[in-house]
């Protein structure tokens, strides 16, 4: 890979110190947590699910911080707001590999979050987070009837656009296209470090760390192996969009029972 071929992943990316890498992985999550903690009770008071605040945070905290930092680095490196040499791991893949690799990764995410997560998360919540107020738990399906159709429609639209598409695209550029290559000196340990720190960055759902790590490790390793962030973007967007469709169905009146 040379400077004249930005599509291929560079193998000589400038390495971050471990402290720098931990900071860059976790700092946006700290800001999201602060925003969510302040605004979620306000959302609930206005008759909206607390999770609405999290989706708003994607638009006003996550995307500006992570994409803004990438563009800032591009400006310093290239003299213009370009991601050349900043977002790496962009080697092309034939279309059939996106299906061959992406489908099992997507199905594994489904298994992890729909089958493994409920019992594991419940044990962790009861053991470590029983003190957390109810509004901190994003969206409780058991209390969905207390929200109006308009409130559910708002959260569904925000979930589909910000959490389903925009957020995952920016996260994959930032975490897998920028931060992961800067850990490449750790070899095969780099994807594991990246996955652990990416999971911890979700300070607003710490009880999901176990299942989130289990769910994401294959996706991160495959992207690292193929030096391709687009596969992860597709799988990440599909998984988040799939969960948002359930909220949309509720908003359209397709409620359980």
Secondary structure blueprint with pairings:
Elements: H1 18-45, H2 51-78, H3 95-128, H4 149-179, H5 190-200, H6 209-226, H7 230-251
Helix pairs in contact: 1-2, 1-5, 2-4, 3-6, 3-7, 4-7, 5-6, 6-7
Can you offer a commentary on this structure?
With 257 residues, the protein is mainly α. It has one domain. The protein is 67% helix and 0% strand. It is built from 7 helices and no strands. Helix 2 (51-78) packs parallel to helix 4, helix 3 packs antiparallel against helix 6 and helix 5 runs antiparallel to helix 6. It is globular and about 55 Å long. The termini are far apart. The model is unreliable at 1-9 (pLDDT under 50).
Distance between the termini: 57 Å
Structural class: mainly alpha
Secondary-structure element sequence?
A: HHHHHHH
Low-confidence segments, ≥5 residues, pLDDT <50?
A: 1-9
Helix content: 55-70%
Q: Mean of the pLDDT scores?
A: 90
Beta-strand percentage range: under 5%
How many domain modules? 1
Strand runs, count: 0
The coarse overall form would be globular
Main β sheet profile: none
Q: Determine the number of helices (DSSP H or I, runs of at least 4 residues).
A: 7
- What is the gyration radius calculated from CA atoms? 19 Å
């Amino acid at each position: 890979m040379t400077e004249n071929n930005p599509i291929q992943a560079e193998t000589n990316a400038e390495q971050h110190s471990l402290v720098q890498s931990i900071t860059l992985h976790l700092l946006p999550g700290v800001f999201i947590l602060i925003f969510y903690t302040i605004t979620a009770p306000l959302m609930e008071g206005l008759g909206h699910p607390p999770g609405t605040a999290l989706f708003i945070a994607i638009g006003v905290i996550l995307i500006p911080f992570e994409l803004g930092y990438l563009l800032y680095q591009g400006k310093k490196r290239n003299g213009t707001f370009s991601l050349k040499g900043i977002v790496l791991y962009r080697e092309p893949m034939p279309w059939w590999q996106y299906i061959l690799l992406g489908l099992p990764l997507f199905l594994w995410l489904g298994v992890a979050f729909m089958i493994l997560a409920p019992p594991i998360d419940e044990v962790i919540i009861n053991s470590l987070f029983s003190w957390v107020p109810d509004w901190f738990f994003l969206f409780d399906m058991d209390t969905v009837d207390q929200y109006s159709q308009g409130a559910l429609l708002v959260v569904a639209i925000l979930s589909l656009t910000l959490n389903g598409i925009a957020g995952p695209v920016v996260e994959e550029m930032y975490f897998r296209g920028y931060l992961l290559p800067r850990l490449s000196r750790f070899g095969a340990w780099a994807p594991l470090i990246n996955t652990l720190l990416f999971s911890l960055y979700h300070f607003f759902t710490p009880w999901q760390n176990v299942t989130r790590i289990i769910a994401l490790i294959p996706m991160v390793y495959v992207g690292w192996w193929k030096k391709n962030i687009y596969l992860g973007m597709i799988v990440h967007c599909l998984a988040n969009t799939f969960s948002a469709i359930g909220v949309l169905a509720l908003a359209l009146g397709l409620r359980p029972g």
